[in-house]
Amino acid sequence: MTGLERVLIIFLWIIIGCFICYKRDWYREYESSDAFPQTFIVFVAIVAMPINFMIIFFKMFLIKKWNNE
User: Fold this and answer.
1) Residue 60, in any domain of the structure
2) Which residue pairs, CB below 8 angstroms and at least 24 apart, start in 43-48?
3) pLDDT digit string (tens) for 7-17?
4) Of 12, 38, 57, 68, which is the most buried if we count CB atoms within 10 A?
5) What is the pTM of this model?
6) Would you say residue 61 has pLDDT above 80?
7) Residue 19 placed within a domain
C-alpha cells in the first residue's frame, strides 16, 4: 500500500466519521450532560467509524423504511 492510499483512507475515515456524527446528532445529545464531554463522544465515533457506519446502514436502510430526511 502506497503512502497516498494510506492518506486517502485516513482522510475518508475522518470525513465519514464526522458526517455520521453530524447527521445523527450524536454530539448534541451530550451537550448538557456532565457524564461525557461531547468531544470524547465525537472522537470515539470517528475512531469507531466502520462500526458506526454498519450500524447506521443496517438501521436506516434495512430495518426502517428508507426515508431520506
Assistant:
1) yes
2) 45/17, 45/20, 45/21, 46/13, 46/14, 46/17, 46/18, 46/21, 47/17
3) 999 999 888 88
4) 38
5) 0.62
6) no
7) no
In the block, which residue shows the cell 470524547?
A: 40
Residue 43 counted as domain residue: yes
- Domain ranges, residue 44: 37-69
Q: What is the count of structural domains for the chain?
A: 1
Handedness of CA 47, 18, 15, 24 (dihedral sign): positive
d(CA 10, CA 63): 29
In a domain, 28, yes or no: no
Residue 49 CA from chain centroid, whole number: 5
In which residue are the cell numbers 454498519 written? 54
